[in-house]
Amino acid sequence: MSERKIWRKILPVKFSNPRLTVSTSGSSGMSKLKNVLESFGFAKEEQQIAFLENLVLAGYFEDKKLWQMVHLINFDQNGQKSHFASGDEAEAFEALKKVYSDSKDPNRSTKYLLEHLFESDNFDPQDVEDMVLHLGQSAFARVYNQERSELQPLNLKDSVREDYLKNAATLGLVEQINPVATKFDETWIQGAARCRMKSRLEYCLSLRENENIDLGAIKFRTGDRELWLEIDKMPEESFEETKAFFLELAECNFIAVDPENQFEKRSNGRTYLKYAEGETRKITEDLAAQFLLDQCSDNKIENIVDSKVLERRSRPDTESGANASYDDFVKAAHFPSDRKPAVLIVSNQPYCLRQLEAVQSAIAKKSGKEDCFELEVAGEKSSADVTAIHSEFGALIAELYLKKVRQFPAERKRSLNQMTYSERLKTDLEIGETFSHHPTTKIVKPLAAQVAAELMSSLNDSEIETSRQRER
Fold it and tell me: Which residues, other chains included, contact 177 with Cβ-Cβ below 8 Å and sequence gap of 6+?
């Protein structure tokens, strides 16, 4: 059995390749939602149910949020109607609301919602694909350049939290993932704040020392984003100890610090080193990574620094890092003559599956070929709270949607930007009063005005985070 087949068989959740979504009907074949989720790679019904249950637990099927979704995807980024398969947005809203209401019958389960949610004639497969992306993007509640560690916690009861985590585990976002293959050409450790970089480095080395896995050339893939005390503080450190580490790192790298006021709290609420006048260098992720490598017994691990910030991003991320890793791999001429190169990506949960998809996507775009590498991902069990897992869940949905669209290009009713978290808020401001004037039903009309007011008040002076802004 090939390594790829073993990988697919053993990994708790290994997404199948996307496939073309075909038109189906509830009476003669697979439901539209099941068909779309399967086309994204959620092949098992238990994954599909877990996917849907977590959207329900997060409150995305409340009247207000259903209306927001229905209305906003009915316009493109220019404020023009994109149209459902049939009927107007008020009819589409009522169709979804009725099925969700029916699904709450004690004798029914989430499976009823899975089989009936988009079965009315209002929706075609592309409508369903776009709504799945839109629902996933609701997991983002981040302003521009905000990290997941700074998100406000989801207000969930303990019982709901337990159900959410159980579903997240079914989706492959919680439990540890170990590699299946035993030999790789290279291993790429994903950069992060110091705590996660340290645990990823230790986990990676344990694979070689305890599991006898040949990791090939190990590369620490880091970026030159500036660090601040709150994100880089180790769990066992006091705040003063973290300050001392930053000062030591500055001294080791000959970075001049203001002698009178060594630290400053900026307008974003984060505490940074205050650099001396004229100093251009900063304390960055790659410097922290190099510090960890200097303490490591393996002096052959290379620190690959990614300094390129892609368009519409605030800092280097998974995609730009994958581009740098690919370029480095090509430059080193590591391509074997008789097989695809094997690369292990080392991260930690809940980031593993999303980062695997993001790296695959970046390499496909960079090389012009799908699956030109044999990629695996490995990482330790998640210690994150529900809020961070939920945000990562939204990012994973976006990656799977993008993969599907990339592999099966077709004319789309709606632009991608319009459906992402940031752009759909801006779109609503652009389309103006149509939000409150279009609906004709008594139920929808006041609801639309309420949602419009809340969306407008939610915007502040900073730009809103885009869906592809990723934490590594």
Answer: 11, 12, 349, 352, 377, 378, 379
pLDDT digits (tens, 9 = 90+) for 396-427: 998 899 888 888 888 888 777 667 665 554 44
Q: Are 185 and 334 in contact (CB under 8 A)?
A: yes
Continuous segment of H or E residues that includes residue 218: strand 217-223
For residue 439, is the peptide bond before it cis, meaning its omega torsion is within 30 degrees of 0?
no
SS3 235: coil
**One-letter amino acid for residue 45 of the chain:** E
**pLDDT tens-digit series, residues 34-90:** 999 999 889 899 999 999 999 998 888 888 888 878 877 776 656 667 667 666 788
Q: Which residue has the tokens 């505490």?
A: 271
> How far is Cα 66 from Cα 41, in angstroms, rounded to an integer?
25
- For 129, residues 6+ apart whose C-beta sits below 8 A from its C-beta are 21, 36, 39, 401, 404
**Is the model more confident about 195 or about 23?**
195
Nearest to 50 by CA among 113, 134, 139: 113
Query: How far does CA 355 lie from the centroid of its chain?
Result: 8
* Higher local confidence (pLDDT), 288 or 412: 288
Cβ-defined contacts of 317-320 (< 8 Å, 24+):
317/223, 317/468, 317/469, 317/470, 317/472, 318/190, 318/354, 318/355, 318/358, 318/359, 318/362, 318/470, 318/472, 319/358, 319/361, 319/362, 319/468, 319/470, 320/223, 320/362
Contact between 50 and 163 under an 8 Å Cβ cutoff? The reply is no
**CATH architecture assigned to 177-224+285-381:** 3-Layer(aba) Sandwich (3.40)
For residues 384 and 391, give the distance between their C-alpha atoms in angstroms, rounded to a whole number.
11
CB atoms within 10 A of CB 182: 12
The letter for the amino acid at 35 is N
Would you state the structure tokens that stand for residue 48, as one six-digit string? 């599909």
Say if residues 85 and 95 touch (Cβ distance below 8 Å).
no
Token duo for residue 113: 């919602």
Least confident piece of the model among 239-253, 280-294, 411-425: 411-425
Tokens 């994100």 label which residue?
231
Most distant pair of Cα atoms in the chain: their distance = 75
Quote the tokens at residue 346: 């080392």
Domain boundaries, the chain: 15-171+392-458, 177-224+285-381, 226-283
